[in-house]
Amino acid sequence: MAQQAQISKKRKFVADGVFNAELNEFLGRTLGEDGYAGVEVRVTPIRTEIIIRATRTREVLGEKGRRIRELTALVQKRFGFPENSVELFAERVENRASCAMAQCESLRYKLLGGLAVRRACYGVLRFIMENGATGVEVIISGKLRAQRAKAMKFKQGYLISTGEPKKHYISEAVRHVLMRQGVLGIKVKIMMSHDPEGKMGPKMQMPDKITVHEPKEEVPPMMGPPEQQEYGGYEEAPAAE
User: Which of 41, 71, 175, 232 is the most exposed place for a label (fewest CB within 10 A)?
Assistant: First the structure.
């Protein structure tokens, strides 16, 4: 964020948090249909780089990069950046099935299109699990069919909910769907699979993962010739003549 004067550390962190939240909200509303999956802000001494993660980068860029230039101008004007000091980039999400934001948006548009709640949720659940996720949970609440509001929970696979691995393995997103009868809330939680390369999932191994190694082939100890064997610690008495 453009800083005009020296401000305290506390105020800077608050200002950065507000900037990130507002930018995320703006891009989420603008690029929801294009599979918006988060934003990353990198501040360098020369300029501020904003990387937009999305499943359909071609739509984000627009025809001949027109849309991304429009978004750059809007961000620059709204947050008071100097001319040519902010730049927007679009980055494609490698595995959209493990991105909760993208799946939440997908479910949202299915419901807005008039698809039945159960069918939409099971479709998303199946798609996520078929693409290598460890587990998934979809919670949808509101006035689903009748006048009274209720919540429905759809779950499949193995899903952790606490501890340090949750920060690395769980992708979570919440969206609101403005239906005719009222607002529906959607919550999607996806547990990604371990990937040693760190591309399709977290590089960090689960702490409770136990690897059972194959036993080593044991070589039997060599036995001496029969005449040298002695038993019970006593030597054989010489035969009487």
Answer: 232
- Among 178, 174, 171, CA closest to 187: 174
What does the DSSP assignment read for 67-123? HHHHHHHHHHHHHTPPTT-EEEEEEE-S-GGG-HHHHHHHHHHHHHTT--HHHHHHH
Residues 6+ apart with CB under 8 A from 106: 35, 124
For residues 125-139, average pLDDT: 91
Q: Tell me the CA end-to-end span of the chain in Å, nearest whole number.
A: 110
Tens of pLDDT along 158-213?
999 989 989 989 999 999 999 998 999 999 999 998 888 878 888 888 888 888 99
Query: What number of other Cβ atoms are within 10 A of residue 73's Cβ?
Result: 12
The pTM assigned to this predicted structure is: 0.75
Instruction: For residues 71 and 23, give the distance between their C-alpha atoms in angstroms, rounded to a whole number.
Output: 11
